[in-house]
Amino acid sequence: MTHQFDPSALREYDVRGIVGKSLGPADATAIGRGFATRVRGVGGTRVAVGYDGRLSSPALEAALVAGLVAGGVDVVRIGLGPSPMLYYAEATLEVDGGIHVTGSHNPAEYNGFKMVLRHAPFFGDDIQDLAALAAAGAWSEGTGVVTTVDLRDAYVGRLMAGYAGGAFRIGWDTGNGAAGPVIEALVKLLPGEHHVIFAEVDGNFPNHHPDPTEESNLADLKRLVTENNLDFGLAFDGDGDRIGAVDALGRVIWGDQILSILVEPALREHPGASIVADVKSSQALFDRITALGGEAVMAPTGHSLMKTAMTRTGAPLGGELSGHLFFAGDYYGFDDAAYAAVRLIRAVHLSGQSLTALHDAMPALVATPDLRFPVDDAEKFAVVDAVVARLARDGAVVDLTDGARVTTPDGWWLLRASNTQAMLTVRAEARTADALASLLAAVDAHLAACGVARA
Length: 455
Fold this sequence. Notes:
By secondary structure, this protein is an alpha/beta fold. 38% of the residues lie in helices and 23% in strands. Helix 5 crosses helix 6 (180-189), helix 8 packs parallel to helix 9 and helix 8 crosses helix 11 (337-351).
């Protein structure tokens, strides 16, 4: 038996597509068969499986489990929960890998699979290998055994191990995503006053889309915080691996700014350590890491690539503009928004200041959000390459960690191709609005020379 995947579902970091179009139960079974083959190939025998709150997740999880056991591996089902709970299972149970059925922060009609093998991200060539195994039908055979474990209380207990005092009045918005029940359990253990909204898991996402990088999705949290005079608010994406925050005034604190708050206690505990941030992050963050005696490491965007950079450098902490925050040292190295919330509360407490005051103390810079615009998958990397070649001819100061990050006297701008969508992404940062406009004009000129417009 063989199987062909829709190529569009085979992403850099995971498998993801529109259910009923580019992804379905047959694909889930084939992923199970292929992953079982890889697990057995490294001498493994057991895999943990979880799923998020999307309407299609239970059926895809059942098909995935069927594929795994047919491939001869045992399965430990942990049930409904955020992706970090699956990562926690993979890190702490006697298993050799893990798969979470999740559409992450994508719209409701999407779903997919995030995979871990032997505590390392399973991505890139690994995902293409699953497709090759399926096309050839070169799968292991066997009859695995399925067991079930309820891990939520143990996971929430482990989150609290990162707590270090401080009672705050906090708003929490889980956006009807998979993190809801975990956050409800967590706030019962935290001191202070906690207001949780949209904690019921609902794959229709009836209140707003669970993506805290889009400011419009934070409107309910801002209202909750300001109307109740709370200290700050925290938001989570659909599968609970990305965090967003607002201060007492309802101002957004972006992922790189959250990381800049976490840097000081991390470097106090790990003097001189590397801290990893993605190429989209503010120059103020890299400068702060250096000023506090750390080694600032710029890494490509993408959770799998960030984990790889963390392992390579031995960094205790890392993060992305998108709100993926990674904790090693006394944690497990993966991105976990609930743990990030606990560590942020701790960092605010240790600072002796309010989150609003910490926000006020940050350098006054003007930046764009991620400006995404569609470009065909077949063309997006070629556009970036053409711009890089032109920059080289001009003698520009360019970092090629991931796309092109160009530093000028006005600030910096970034052009990169998305690894997960048919998109190019632009981001820029400057000290003034006029300087920012100048940077964006330079980007647009380079794109126009390639026949592309941001629209």
